[in-house]
């Protein structure tokens, strides 16, 4: 948080320090959304430039630093994804593969809590109680801003299945998160 | 639909809203209710914060090292652009180039204006405040007029793929070439880019050596660019080569120089 204040005062060394601390994490997020190393790097570049320009507004958001940075990177990543969708009609093709890959993973909870805020810790605990596929479908819906229909199409699953997984997953999360509130 | 009366339904809608799976008319109706009902609004915000935590739980990955270099370059270029904009204060250098461009004329005009103000101050002390203000306005307008670049020549230098690499403009008021690198090209630390005028039927003439920044300026007289149909940039040893020898390295970028009519 001190780093962001220093960045607001045009301290380039602070931007470098923030980058060293957070770039790997945020690059991982962008990679998950845009699905390509080259574009994820473009997003990372745009995001830190945005941080450099808007660090002065950070305090007003009242959010933990990683939450703020995460929102910037997700929003930039989705912009990138939409630009690409507009440029290329066959976009869904290469996404399908990366999406179904993640569903097949059977690791109990592959999520990474390094640098996570307290709120993210709580969510992480609760996500651990979900079935793998519920967790993945919920993650994908949010990270890539996909509707039930889009998810069903890209994962080659019946629409009803996707809806049920998401609803049950969210119900479980609600019960679990209520205990942290 | 009154979700505020059904806690379970409210939670479900707020969660779907935050996740983004609540779409279309249902989403708009929920937003309308959220605007009117603080309880609904609070549930939506709570869920938005929750699901946003997903951003923080993704596995890390290693970006390529040049990403930081690109960010640093952009941040510095931005700093320099701001510095250049702030530096556009009146410059003392001038050359005889028509009465309109004559600094002496404008200084004289300024002095005359000042004399009028002084005279008025002596004669009409009651109007002093108003005239002070007018005098300051005249001085400010003069300053702005002198500071505004008068761009008369423009060139976009392309690489061999016809992609723009460098934008060049010539400001006849300040006798200054401004260069902006627009492509991703960056020469190695032990090499320099050199800008050349390509006059018809004559050897190329050096206009100067580019510093590695994204935005830079070179002093040049209007003679050096008038009647020159094209510019080129070559890759040379660090510090460039003498003008009379001509470019020794490969020409990376070139393009026509256009004199603005408007």
Plain-language structure description:
The complex is a heterodimer of chains A (181) and B (262). Chain A has 181 residues and is mainly α. Chain A is 78% helix and 0% strand. Chain A contains 10 helices and no strands. Chain A has helices spanning 2-8, 12-34, 37-54, 58-61, 65-87, 91-104, 118-127, 132-143, 148-155, 159-180. In chain A, helix 3 (37-54) crosses helix 5 and helix 7 (118-127) crosses helix 10 (159-180). Chain B has 262 residues and is an alpha+beta fold. Chain B has 3 domains: 3-57, no CATH class; 99-147; 151-259, Immunoglobulin-like (Sandwich). Helices cover 41% and strands 22% of the residues of chain B. Chain B is flat. The chains are: A mainly alpha (181), B alpha+beta (262). At the A-B interface, helix 2, helix 3, helix 5, helix 7 and helix 8 of A face helix 1, helix 3 and helix 4 of B.
What key attributes describe this structure?
heterodimer, A: 181 residues, mainly alpha, Arc Repressor Mutant, subunit A, 2 domains, B: 262 residues, alpha+beta, Immunoglobulin-like, flat
Would you kindly provide a brief summary of this structure?
Helices cover 78% and strands 0% of the residues of chain A. With 181 residues, chain A is mainly α.
- Mean pLDDT, all residues of chain B: 82
CATH second-level architecture of the largest domain in chain A: Orthogonal Bundle
SS elements, strand count of chain A: 0
Question: Helix- and strand-based class of chain A?
Answer: mainly alpha
What is the distance, rounded to the nearest whole angstrom, between the alpha carbons of the first and last residues of chain B? 63 Å
Q: What general form of chain B does the structure show?
A: flat
Highest CATH level, the class of the largest domain in chain A: Mainly Alpha
**Termini gap of chain A:** 24 Å
Spell out the CATH superfamily of the largest domain in chain A: Winged helix-like DNA-binding domain superfamily/Winged helix DNA-binding domain
Radius of gyration of chain A using CA atoms only: 17 Å
Instruction: Kindly identify the CATH topology of the largest domain in chain B.
Output: Immunoglobulin-like
- What multimeric state do the chains show? heterodimer
Which chains have the largest interface?
A-B, 59 and 35 residues
Count of individual domains of chain A: 2
Major beta-sheet overview of chain B:
8 strands, antiparallel
- SSE pattern of chain A: HHHHHHHHHH
CATH architecture of the largest domain in chain B: Sandwich
* Mean of residue pLDDT values of chain A: 85
Q: What's the level 1 CATH class of the largest domain in chain B? A: Mainly Beta
- Share of helix of chain A, binned: over 70%
